[in-house]
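Task 17 of the worksheet. Students: predict the tertiary structure of the chain below and write it out as structure tokens. Keep your answer in the requested format; marks are given for formatting as well as content.
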Amino acid sequence: MKKLVFASAMALAGICLVSTPAIRALSSSQTIQIQDPAEFNSYQNASTQNDPAQKCAALESFLKAYPQSTAKAAAYDQMIDCYQQTNQPDALLSAASRLLQIDPNNMKAIYITVSVKKTLCGKALDPSGASTDPQTCDDGAAMAQKGLSVPKPADTSDADWKTMTANLYPVFHSAIAYDDLVSKKDYAGAVREYTAELMLFAPDDCTKPGVCLADTLQLAQAYSKPGPARDEVKAVWFYARAWDYAPAGFKPAIEGQLDYRYKHFHGTLDGDAAITKQINDVKAQAQATLFPPATFVIAPAPTPEELAHHAYTSGDPTKLNLEDIEFILANGSTEDANGLWALLKGKATPVPGNVISDPATVLKISVTTAASPKPKEYLVKLTNPVACNAVPPAPTELKIKEAQAYILANGVKADTDALGDVLTETPAHLKKIEVVPSVTVINVAVTQDAKDNHTADFNVNPKEPVSCKEAPAPGAVLGLQPSAMELDGIYDTYTKVPASGSTGPTAQIVLSGGFVQQAKKTAPAHHAPAKPSAAHHAQ
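Model answer:
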């Protein structure tokens, strides 16, 4: 859901945040003087091309032939235009970077650099919405910060400068805020920058797809994040505002976050019908103004223990979803938590969520000797458990000596000693040794807070070690069969973790007997597929 909402925000904004005419208006109008006739003719030929692709190619050729030309800045300026028209972001960024080398305060080149970097940043997010390319995000934000500090050129009128900055400053604040949100995780900074940005827009700009509407949604995200900047009342307001004016296709993703945040803050004791009306009332209020009035309030939820008791006693506890189960175990009274656990212990359940870690901890070893065709199975703990992609590759099963050396080098000595002569026999006595790095625990973030904090709250111990090849990778999103990879386990133990700092109490839930089911590839069907049973999906 998080990545979906981030993607929705980027799509609402679009790649081009300022209109093409506005960008071209930033171009320099300085007179160019070229003394060499051949150089002049080459520049004139390049700059008067009508086809954007041909124009950029001709300008590149001109700069290669005349690298010190007095028209260099003008050539780069025009290349920005034609590379943008031909949708070549790498070449566009290169032209802007080269222009900044000779004109460090060129606002057009700064704007282009910020826009391209932010777009690339938005394309590199993990399932939680965190950046997987923080350097690109940081570079875009640093350039945006520079753009905000560029002084007005002496030859630019106050009116032109005001028009220019009205177009560009919101873009710069947006890039800094986005970097704070997805890269630096400075949520207070994101709130500050998004607020500063949105205050620069005319009211009508924020009621249609564009950067203002997109960043209304991002401000809601920033207010939702854990830490001192969290303000769920304001998060609800900005989610409602974004929902009000988002196109129909974007509303479901926003609705999910709005519903979750409202219930998280206010609770669910009022019942679905009343809460739906309350949320609709917020939507109606948010249509009138971008920022919430000082009088806007949402009644806070009952205490966590009261909520946990209501969740436990208001229906069939065995049909609670995993988030509610974790909440009751973490926040409920001893009587409620123990009562729920008595009902769950020994029961199987799917565990949908985000995989936080599942390090390789053991080597599964299968040994076939010349004397016996039936292989013997062994487990050897790894000396240094690491992520599967960091485990040294195991030798193939027919490379006996290499396999023996690999096991001795990577296995715990007590376990390798227990293998006896398996590791000392000559290859003549052994037909093959298969070594498979495997995982013995899969740590999953199931609740929204766990996903936000990138920490696991459900820990599944597989019935048998799962090979690294079959185990879900960190960052994988687990769901339900048949459309998604599914992880199942049996409730075994739980531990209540007391509140610490700004983090409330949580529960660490351990499941045993786990197993992974890969997503099924289904052939096109000419009839509606049968739905999974309710029992299968019950959590």
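Marker's comment: Residues 23 and 482 are 49 Å apart (CA to CA). Residues 1-6, 14-25, 527-539 have pLDDT under 50 and may be disordered.
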